[in-house]
Structures are given as C-alpha cells and as structure tokens.
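Customer escalation, tier 2.

The customer says the design service returned an amino acid string that "doesn't look like it belongs to this structure." They asked us to rerun it and document both sides in this ticket. The original structure tokens are below, unchanged.
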C-alpha cells in the first residue's frame, strides 16, 4: 500500500493511478539515458592516456550500426578528476597526407567535471546530433600544458583490439590525426579509448545499404628497394578524371603518375623513408603508405 506525505493512505484506485504516474515519470526523465551503446572497449582500463601537449586532442572513431543514428549522450572513463573538455566531430575532415577521412567539423562540445576516477561519466549533449550516413568521432582536448595535471582517460589495451583510437598532434608546423596503431607496419599501441556513444538507431541497417567500393589501391612490393607496382581499380561512373599522386611525409606532392589501365610503376631516385600514394577523383579518394628502403 502506498502512503503519501502526512501518513494518509491511498485507496486501491489511488494506488494504481500513483503507480502509473510514477512509471510514466521514470520513463520520461530517464529517456535521455536510454538507448543503444556503441563501444569498442571491454570495460576495463589497463592504462591512462593523455594527448601529451596543450591543444593536442584524442578521439575514438565510431561507426553506427544503422541509420538514422541519433547521438544524444557520450560516456567517458576518467582516470582522474580534472575537467574534461569533450568534443564530437563529424567525419568530414581530410588527412593532408593521405587524403583519408579525419575528424572535421565540431558538432558538439562542452566541459564536464568527473566526480570520481575509475567510474563511467555520462555526458548528455546539449542538442542531439543526427547522422543519416557516415561516421563520427568522440574525444577530448588537453587544455593544460602540464600533462599530469590534465584530464586522462581510460585506455583498453587488452585483446581483442578494434584499434579505433587516434590522436591529433603537431608535426612540422601542421596538424595531423594519427592512429595509435599502424596495422600495416605493426607499430604503435594497440587498443581503444574507453569512450562510448549512446544513440537511438533507425531501421536501415548498414549492411542493407548498397555502397560499392569506390577505389581499390595496393602496392607491391611494400616495403620496396628500387621500384614499386601500384595496382588500382576504379568505379565505372566517375564524374571527374582520376589522379594518382605520390607525397612525401610532409605532404608535399612529389610526382603525378599516369592513370592508364590498372597498374602504375614508380621508380624513385629518393632517399629511404615513408611516402604516400593517393588516387583521387573529386571527393573520392584512397591512399596507401609506402616504405622505401635503400
């Protein structure tokens, strides 16, 4: 039997009405936190990660399971209680070296203050963000020059790994987003940031959508000593002519190779180092890292 303030008992009908009201209120006020979680960690933090320098950033890369996908809250796993300057980015950024997808437009941001370390922190977006296609990134900015006095987030380094963790650092005066783990050369740190997306997803599953692969690009041998064969395939309905370019590690274009058929050969007279080959037609592009060893 329910008892209201003052000790008055409710009738049976009053009890039923009160229960309905309480259930409705719980659903109403908890709705913003109810939804599907997209995550790539296993729930345990083996390490703490800081971007490393003031204004450097770190993020986890998210792929929705269906569209439309409404992002209305994010979860972080703070390893200390310093302020968290969080952000949500669209996938409309372009890597200046490879032409690949990077975090671009900031869609939502704010500051959160963890109450405790080692516990999940839920942050509701001021305005939900709706994605009808593509992917997105969730992360934070280091705002303090003293790293150990800055927000640090949990990092899951135990297998299996999704390796979707990236960070933004300054190299030779330019900004770059870099994967923590390079799968091609197996260098870096494997794992994922303990960051999660809370979403409401639509009924159009990604696997049901027809997205023919835009480009196929590979190189052999890689690493190479004197020459490398670059193999590629192109969709038949290109609206703009394709370009096949080679870049150095600083993003400077070295040479444009002819696009004729499905193979090109590059015979550089350059020192050992990392280079990039990119094939591009309008907004469509694919890139591959090349390692020249003399």
């Amino acid at each position: 039997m329910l008892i209201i303030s003052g000790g008055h008992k409710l009738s049976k009908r009053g009890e039923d009405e009160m229960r309905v009201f309480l259930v409705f209120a719980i659903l109403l006020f908890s709705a913003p936190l109810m939804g599907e979680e997209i995550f790539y960690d296993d729930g345990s933090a083996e390490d703490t990660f800081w971007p490393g320098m003031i204004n450097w950033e770190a993020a986890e890369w998210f792929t929705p399971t269906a569209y439309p996908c409404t992002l209305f809250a994010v979860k972080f796993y703070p390893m200390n209680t310093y302020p968290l300057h969080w952000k949500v980015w669209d996938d409309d950024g372009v890597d200046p070296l490879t032409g690949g997808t990077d975090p671009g437009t900031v869609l939502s941001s704010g500051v959160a203050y963890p109450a405790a370390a080692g516990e999940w922190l839920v942050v509701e977006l001021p305005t939900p963000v709706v994605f009808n296609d593509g992917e997105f990134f969730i992360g934070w900015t280091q705002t303090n020059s003293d790293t150990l006095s800055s927000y640090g987030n949990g990092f899951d380094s135990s297998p299996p790994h999704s390796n979707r963790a990236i960070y933004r650092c300054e190299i030779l005066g330019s900004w770059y987003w870099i994967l923590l783990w390079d799968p091609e050369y197996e260098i870096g740190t494997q794992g994922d940031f303990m960051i999660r997306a809370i979403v409401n997803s639509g009924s159009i599953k990604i696997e049901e959508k027809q997205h023919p692969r835009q480009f196929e690009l590979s190189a052999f041998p890689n690493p190479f000593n004197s020459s490398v064969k670059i193999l590629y395939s192109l969709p038949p309905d290109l609206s703009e002519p394709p370009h096949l370019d080679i870049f150095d590690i600083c993003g400077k274009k070295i040479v444009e190779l002819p696009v004729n058929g499905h193979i090109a050969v590059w015979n550089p007279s350059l020192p050992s180092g990392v280079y990039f080959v990119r094939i591009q037609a309008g907004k469509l592009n694919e890139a591959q890292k090349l390692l020249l060893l003399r």
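Tier 2 assessment: The sequence is consistent with the input. The first strand starts at residue 36 and ends at 38. The chain has a mean pLDDT of 80. Sent an explanation to the customer and offered a walkthrough call.
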